[in-house]
């Protein structure tokens, strides 16, 4: 009975009558350690902003058009009327109002990754899924229109994916320290519409074009470049590219990596109609693959190269061993063959061939055959997103728009 009541409360619109005052029940959750009892989160205009009300299933009455309670299914016309059985129940309500007021006033301790324990976001539910708490944020990243989330222990662990603009100020403190709430970094609406595009791959060992100054509109930021070892970072943007006889090359850590089986981060060159190089440099895009073995997977990339030789809507993924393409700085930097490792366009053809690459960048080559499943230029849809901190920390470049 409790499970069906909770399900109805989550999926329908309910009202609660307490001491002749009407409340709107936003949602409910099991009352810990008390059998057949659930907690309503209430809202009533002009009096109580938030309150928790404990309700025993057998003390609540339900009415629908037929005047009885369906055992497992409730209609949108149902109303929940809870009659306080005695004065003690009124004191319970007052106690929960006081506790919740104190709880709401308590500061929520946010982590640097924008999540916290003991908090919740009310309403704006998009969907829910039964997963572990530590996977809830990643599920939100992978779900279209999800901007924030709440995780509770309900039903063995439920991630409540939520939509709409939100800030940390919208979070409310709860007494359940196992609850988790969070905001997704890339919640800002895309500044470009979702478009269809193609992908290719490359690793040419040339200094990224976005590593020069004045390549990011409205910012002095630029992508880090490194010396020949790929780990000693230049402290300025004026070093000449190794592909032009200079000493600047891409840094070894500017290679892709998997966050989980469905999400990866990386870097790319890109050609986007209507955007010049200063508009593209250091912007991040969410690529949702639509063909090949990676169909359904997502990759978030930061644009670090201009992609002047690319066709419109093409993203050239920066993957070690993916082919040097038009330019080859890998012979200078790593003593690679004249056409780079493998074919000049396309690169190595097997995971075993990745062992021919320097150890410092080899993991990026493995990525292509592991997470990327050896996909050969898959199609995708893409949209602009806010850059994850992990990408910005590597590139050293961010935009203000």
TrEMBL record:
Entry GO MF terms: cellulase activity
Enzyme class: hydrolase
Keyword list, A-Z: Carbohydrate metabolism, Cellulose degradation, Glycosidase, Hydrolase, Polysaccharide degradation
UniProt-listed InterPro entries: GH45_Enzymes, Glyco_hydro_45, RlpA-like_sf
GO BP annotations, alphabetical order: cellulose catabolic process
Domain of life per record: Eukaryota
SUPFAM superfamilies cross-referenced by the UniProt entry: Barwin-like endoglucanases
One Pfam entry name: Glyco_hydro_45
Catalytic activity: Endohydrolysis of (1->4)-beta-D-glucosidic linkages in cellulose, lichenin and cereal beta-D-glucans
Residue ranges constituting the Glycosyl hydrolases family 45 active site domain according to the UniProt record: 199-210
Enzyme Commission identifier(s): 3.2.1.4
Residues at the catalytic site: 204 (nucleophile)
PANTHER family per UniProt: ENDOGLUCANASE 1
Similarity remark: Belongs to the glycosyl hydrolase 45 (cellulase K) family.
Name by which UniProt lists this protein: Cellulase
Source organism of this protein record: Rotaria sordida
């Amino acid at each position: 009975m409790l499970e069906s009541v909770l399900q109805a409360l989550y999926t329908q619109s309910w009202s609660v009558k307490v001491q002749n005052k009407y409340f709107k029940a936003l949602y409910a959750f099991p009352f810990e350690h008390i059998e057949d009892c659930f907690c309503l989160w209430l809202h009533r205009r002009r009096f109580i902003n938030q309150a928790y009300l404990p309700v025993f299933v057998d003390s609540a009455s339900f009415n629908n058009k037929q005047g009885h309670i369906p055992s497992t299914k409730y209609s949108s016309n149902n109303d929940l009327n809870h009659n306080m059985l005695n004065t003690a129940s009124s004191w319970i309500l007052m106690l929960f109002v006081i506790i919740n007021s104190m709880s709401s006033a308590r500061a929520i301790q946010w982590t640097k990754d924008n999540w916290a324990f003991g908090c919740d976001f009310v309403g704006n539910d998009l969907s829910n899924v039964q997963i572990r708490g530590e996977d809830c944020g990643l599920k939100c990243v992978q779900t279209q229109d999800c901007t924030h989330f709440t995780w509770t222990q309900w039903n063995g662990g439920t991630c409540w994916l939520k939509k709409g603009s939100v800030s940390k100020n919208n979070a409310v403190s709860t007494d359940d320290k196992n609850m988790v709430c969070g905001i997704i970094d890339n919640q800002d609406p895309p500044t470009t519409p979702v478009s269809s595009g193609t992908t290719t791959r490359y690793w040419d060992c040339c200094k990224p074009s976005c590593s020069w100054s004045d390549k990011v509109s409205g910012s002095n930021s630029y992508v880090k470049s490194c010396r020949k070892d790929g780990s000693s970072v230049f402290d300025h943007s004026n070093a000449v590219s190794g592909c032009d006889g200079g000493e600047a090359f891409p840094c070894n850590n500017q290679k892709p990596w998997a966050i989980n089986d469905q999400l990866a981060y990386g870097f790319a060159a890109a050609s986007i109609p209507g955007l010049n190089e200063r508009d593209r440099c250091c912007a991040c895009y969410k690529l949702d693959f639509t063909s090949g073995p990676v169909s359904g997977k997502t990759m978030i990339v930061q644009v670090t190269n201009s992609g002047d030789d690319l066709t419109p809507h093409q993203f050239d993924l920066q993957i070690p061993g993916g082919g040097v393409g038009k330019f080859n700085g890998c012979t200078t930097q790593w003593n690679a063959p004249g056409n780079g490792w493998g074919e000049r366009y396309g690169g190595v053809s097997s995971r075993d061939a990745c062992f021919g690459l320097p150890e410092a960048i080899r993991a990026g080559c493995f990525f292509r055959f592991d997470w990327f499943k050896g996909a050969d230029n898959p199609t995708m849809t893409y949209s602009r997103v806010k850059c994850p901190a992990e990408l910005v920390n590597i590139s050293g470049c961010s935009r203000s728009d």
